[in-house]
Hints:
This protein is an alpha+beta fold. It is built from eight helices and 25 strands. α2 crosses α4, α2 crosses α6 and α2 crosses α7.
Amino acid sequence: MKLFISTLFVFLGVLSLQAQSQKMKMTTDIPQGISMPNEVETRIGNLYFKDGFPSKETSELLKDYLVFNRAVDVFLDEMSASSMYAMRNGYKEMGIVKSNQMAIFETLMDSKALWLTANTETVYAANFLDLKTDNALVIEAPANVLGILDDMWMRYVADVGNAGPDKGKGGKYLILSPDYEGEIPAGYYTFKSRTYGVWFIVRGFMVNGDTKPAVDNIKKHLKIYPLAKADNPPAMEFKNVSGVAHNTIHPNNYEFYEELDKLIQSEHPDAINAEQKGRLALLGISKGHAFELDENKKQILNEAALTGAGIARTISFDSDDDMVYFYDDDKTWFSAFAIGNHEFMSKEGWLHLDARTMFMYNATGITPAMAIEMVGVGSQYAAAAKDADGKFLDGSKTYKLNIPANVPAKDFWSILLYDSQTRSMLQTDQRFPSISSMAERVQQNSDGSTDVYFGPKPPEGKEGNWVQTVPGKGFWLILRLYGPLEPWFDKTWRPGKIIPID
């Protein structure tokens, strides 16, 4: 059959060439590059044309490929929205459904919680503001916290606390919906969101290893209420969710598009631009319309989501892009923010799509404080997924990482291990798969440096400097510097490589 089709197209090609060779009164020489060959070999199969018109089989193949290609792009471009939707769903499962309700991790977050690259050293309190119900919400922020407000596409709205306009002294913030048209009263730090939903998260800091001062500060001073009820605000409700198993991570299959559609249906019609709306609409996702696909397209979108996830993992853990690495001579330490800003813009002024993908697939929470140079303020992050030999980290092996003396962190440093599948905390026998300079168990070397060990079992005598891994399971890690100092930014201080020792 293939031979017959091939012979047929060769014959048709000859006829086409004969037709082209016939000299008409207006005939000119046609440059070869602007015409379509009768047969084209591609990575998706051979394409067949008759004088530029596709065969029926080629047309169907390319239509499916176009759906697939668009769906992969949507996965990579819109995972920030899907991530926010999944985060909000996780809160709803724990009963956090109103603006005055907060999930708080009173004894820190542990590995039972499926969160993208959360930490185990600060007290989290978080919720979602509902600006559709109340189009102007007041946040009374406590002193000495790090807080972020991001919209439902994980676009930066504001910082609250140490990196915000209140400079860690506490203050009143007014968050307005995209529909708000009333007067803006004085006395507030005012910000307007492009979406009805706004993710709000604050981090409090332990005192001498104790979470209670941070918890008490948040529960006593954090208040959220409608501007219209400022004279008689509803009471805050805090729910301790430490140790509660829950999921906030978006799916990597067809469900990704279903959740994206649900978000589109619930959000402001101008939450995204016309180009984004167009990409979604061509997949059947459009506000006010049912998302209904036939089985063929569902299978294509399922494959596209898995392909997009595979691309995101490759970009994240095996990037060839020098811009996402901190050091020119070492491909160990990377970050999407290594390019220098939270909007993922290169110094030349172009949007670094791969850096954005790296961040959105592995983390939540956009703020300039994590990207720009703010000496002594906020935090900085460096991730690693490979050892000194360039091999992915393997939970069956034992590794040593040297943290040189004089770590440039005004507050403290930490290292936390993450599951290579979920990108959330590695689940082991240890409640907290982490180690930090605050831990009394950590022993320094005589030169002031610290050796940290990762493996299924601790090397003898190194139990205090060891973080457990799972044999047969991949892992990666993040080094965090809280209150980063100049030697981090000018790179006169740098962490070592991860050395396999067995």
